[in-house]
Amino acid sequence: MDSKTQPNPDQNFPRLSNIGLSGILVSFSDVLSEAANRAALAFRAHLEVATWDGIEETTTSLTSVYVGFDPKYISHATMEKDLQDLLKSRNWLLSELPQKRKLWRVPTVFGGEFGPQLDEAAELAQMTVQDAVMQLSNSPVQVLTIGYAPGQPYLGTLGEHWNIPRQTALTAKVPAGALVVAIRQLVLFTADSPTGWRHIGQTGFRGFRPQSDTPFPLRPGDEVIFDAIDAEKYANLAVQDSSGNFGATWEEIQ
Amino acid sequence: MSALIIRRAGPALSVQDKGRIGYMVQGLSRGGAADRLALAEGAVLLGQSGDFAALEMPGFGGVFEVTQDTRIALTGAPMTASIDGEPLLWNATHRVAAGQQLTIGAPLRGLYGYLHVGGGFATDPVMGSRAAHLTARVGNAVVAGMSLPIGNDENADQADVKLPMNERFQGGILRITPSAQTARFSKAERARFEATEFTRSPRGNRQGVQLDFEGAPFTAAQQLHILSEIIVPGDIQMTGDGVPFILLPECQTTGGYPRIATVVPQDQPLAAQAPTGARLRFQFIKLKEGLETLRSEAQILADLKRTLQPLVRDPRDIRDLLSYQMISGVTAGHDE
After folding, report:
1. Which chain B residues touch A18 with a CB distance below 8 Å?
2. Which residues of B touch A162 (CB under 8 A)?
3. Domain covering B172-293, topology
4. What does pTM read for this prediction?
5. CB-side exposure of B136: number of CA atoms within 13 Å?
């Protein structure tokens, strides 16, 4: 067994908990791990195919699956037992990533006015700004989940150095396309938004395209490389590409 | 097709129905009417489906006309309302003739008023719903100059009716159930949360409302390092500086700030309708007790139907209207 498929040793997981009166959260870990992320994606995929009576909606977070159901139709006790049985039916931590994944390359300006908190983030990660940009722009990160806002990806997992906290105070607004960092993850904002994460770079990529045939271009499991470009090239892209890709390209991962 | 013409509009008017189910996985929250009970009240008053869309009016209505004679119902936060200067009873149906002017002003209590039409608004659905989700840039606000198409009213001959006001417009006690992250708050912190009197801050919209309070910030274990987790409407999120937000239908679908509890669906209209400065308190109840409060939509509609009364233009209604106006000091005519 290679390190990638090492099961999570935490005996408290998987764990069920309630969210509101009509939701159960199936959590595979409370710390980010690729195995727990793959488990969550695979567990939800199974529920979507199985279409249990009473389930109204399912979704994933980084390491959990949310099961929304009608408690008037199926009791919490029955739903919990069915979910426990499904959990025990196999080792979900050994699941594969979804098929037909894409590798995206997204042109990104790091630092300066396009990423005003890059210096601060690098300092928290205990590295030079140069090394930070090198690390963040050279290796692919995986779309772990889509959430917060339509089409908005959480990406990771960054190295342990990047386990930097969120800010205590919210930044009032970062623009659409902003790349932000905290707790070993990146988020690529799809709309102007307040955030507690640190703004380190800027892209023109649109993760939500309401008028398009493919309104949600990114899927969990896709990988992204944030290619570092300079401000001048960014300005040129703005003129050349109004598709929402803003110079981004993709190929299927074989 | 008949239509509602918007002559003047308050800020952020929008068409709302029950919202969209099935898009959380793409990051799109359910959305829909901030006060779901008001949506049901409109359906029962007009004798039509609970799926129909209404016009949501946060904090102010507008001036409206219709292209053909139309039945309307007014629900949610009671607002000053009149047809050609004739004051209207809230939580009741009325008839607007083509050429008449329907004027809806500021709320007397609460925040979100609703204008329903017989046949419902027949705007084009997007992803299975007519609800604007302005936070997600789905749909548009309704502004002056627009016309909203109206569906065919199958009960056009129904006599006018009214419903008793279900008071939920001035704050109060919100029942909450424990959620996935409740245990991250210490027992003492949870007890303090229940003992604290909050006021609805001026900061709020369809995403959520901030609560003000006296005392230390509320904190959870390791709160700046918690993994982003699923959010549902009604969740009470503690931001990094320890201030609670009650999240509403246009909330984000995931978030990293810990949630101390979730407001039960029955009390969510009260949370949404609390105007700035309204006092709010929280009371933990067990899941089992929460489930006992849960009513299906069919039950809610059936319960409301039993309380329907004929609208008789009698002196009692006139007295109601007078008392509305005395509370507010606002008359039906107004300037923006």
Report:
1. 177-180, 287
2. none
3. Cyclophilin (2.40.100)
4. 0.90
5. 36
